[in-house]
């Protein structure tokens, strides 16, 4: 730790997350000079003209930076600042809203984990559908060796962290409180597990409590830290949508998982999906199609099960439809139903026999050999005499 670390740690106690006035002053004058001026030594920088310096100075008598740095060291964590080898440089895209530094704790190196990461965010009041989708998508992403980042809250956030952990993957929890504060309290064991294999991160010093504005500003870090943000369930007024809009403004990929149109928890996602440059995804492969290597990480196209008659020419299909899945029919009967000449029908029936779609039946000498369909359609096509064809294949060979 050098003097800049100490100065930035001290300023992190003074300024709230996302304070662009503080960020601009630090960018222009450096953290040591800004801290010196706030202690009353010299005129205030012009970047503070629109801010009451009393709001900063009232906090000067709080915990010392050395105490915070010692506290994070006891936790086995560290305080990383811009310019450090462990600093995620993608956060620089936030400009003057960039964190003064990040307090981290965990086995995974934040910078490396964030390079291949996806933010999975959503409602705290997630439905069974939403939490299942978050868990499964996070698990699949972790199996593909992508890190899952979220905010550590109840609902979708927790499901995403747990899905990544279940797959033995990495996960990042970006907190709106100190990394030594378990909030919500019910996630104390979850945060301990994340620290064992992933990482906890916050721009707030140890011991800091969460607040509404800190949750809002925390979202900008999640958006900037990851190449893409995936929203699973979000009401029209939702912090997850704030994260998505921050990500979009930063040029990151924004994706959403659609839900029931009757669900208030999905209304915000559906509104988001109507906007430009927002993508619908339903599986991890589709997420990685937008974030992976161009032209290589393409998701397979989804299709229904292939059926043996899908590629039959129209006339051949008409002959197949004219046969019966229930009882043998003579070729003249099939010809009348299909509207195709009897000679052609005989040829087509032989072709269908070779494909295993019809089978000939024994008949008395001198009578046409009857034919029976061996596999039925499953597309609800009306059969002979307006009978409905049962769903699914059925063997009716005699």
TrEMBL record:
InterPro entries: DprA, DrpA_SLOG
Polar residues bias: start-end ranges: 373-383
Region called Disordered, residue ranges: 357-398
Name of a matching Pfam family: DNA_processg_A
Domain Smf/DprA SLOG residue range list: 79-291
Superkingdom of origin organism: Bacteria
UniProt similarity note: Belongs to the DprA/Smf family.
PANTHER family referenced in this protein's UniProt entry, alphabetically: PROTEIN SMF (PTHR43022:SF1)
Protein's name according to its UniProt entry: DNA-processing protein DprA
Organism expressing this protein natively: Yinghuangia aomiensis
Gene encoding the protein: dprA
């Amino acid at each position: 730790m050098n003097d800049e670390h100490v100065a930035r740690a001290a300023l992190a106690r003074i300024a709230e997350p996302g304070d662009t006035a503080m960020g601009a002053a630090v960018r222009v004058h450096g953290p040591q000079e800004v801290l010196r001026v706030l202690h009353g030594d010299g005129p205030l920088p012009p970047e503070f003209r629109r801010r009451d310096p009393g709001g900063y100075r009232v906090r000067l008598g709080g915990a010392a930076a050395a105490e915070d740095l010692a506290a994070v060291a006891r936790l086995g964590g560290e305080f990383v600042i811009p310019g450090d080898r462990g600093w995620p440089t993608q956060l620089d895209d936030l400009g003057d809203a960039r964190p003064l530094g990040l307090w981290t704790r965990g086995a995974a190196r934040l910078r490396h984990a964030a390079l291949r990461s996806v933010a999975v965010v959503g409602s705290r009041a997630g439905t069974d559908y939403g939490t299942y989708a978050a868990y499964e998508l996070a698990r699949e992403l972790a199996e593909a060796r992508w890190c899952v980042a979220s905010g550590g809250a109840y609902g979708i956030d927790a499901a995403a962290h747990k899905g990544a952990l279940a797959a033995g993957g990495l996960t990042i929890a970006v907190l709106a409180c100190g990394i030594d504060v378990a909030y919500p309290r019910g996630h104390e064991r979850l945060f301990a597990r994340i620290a064992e294999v992933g990482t906890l991160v916050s721009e707030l010093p140890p011991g800091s409590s969460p607040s509404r504005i800190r949750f809002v500003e925390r979202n900008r870090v999640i958006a900037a830290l990851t190449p893409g943000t995936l929203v699973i369930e979000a009401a029209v007024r939702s912090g997850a949508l704030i994260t998505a809009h921050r990500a979009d403004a930063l040029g990151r990929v924004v994706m959403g998982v659609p839900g029931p149109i009757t669900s208030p928890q999905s209304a915000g996602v559906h509104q988001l999906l109507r906007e430009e440059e927002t993508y619908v995804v339903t599986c991890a492969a589709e997420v990685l199609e937008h974030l992976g290597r161009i032209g290589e990480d393409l998701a397979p196209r989804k299709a229904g099960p292939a059926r043996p008659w899908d590629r039959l020419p129209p006339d051949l299909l008409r002959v197949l439809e004219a046969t019966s899945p229930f009882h043998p029919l003579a070729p003249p009967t099939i010809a009348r139903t299909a509207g195709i000449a009897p000679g052609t029908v005989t040829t087509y029936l032989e072709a269908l026999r070779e494909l295993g779609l019809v089978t000939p039946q024994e008949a008395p000498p001198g009578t046409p050999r009857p034919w029976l369909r061996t596999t039925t359609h499953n597309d609800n096509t009306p059969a002979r005499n307006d009978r409905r064809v049962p769903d699914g294949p059925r063997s009716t060979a005699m």
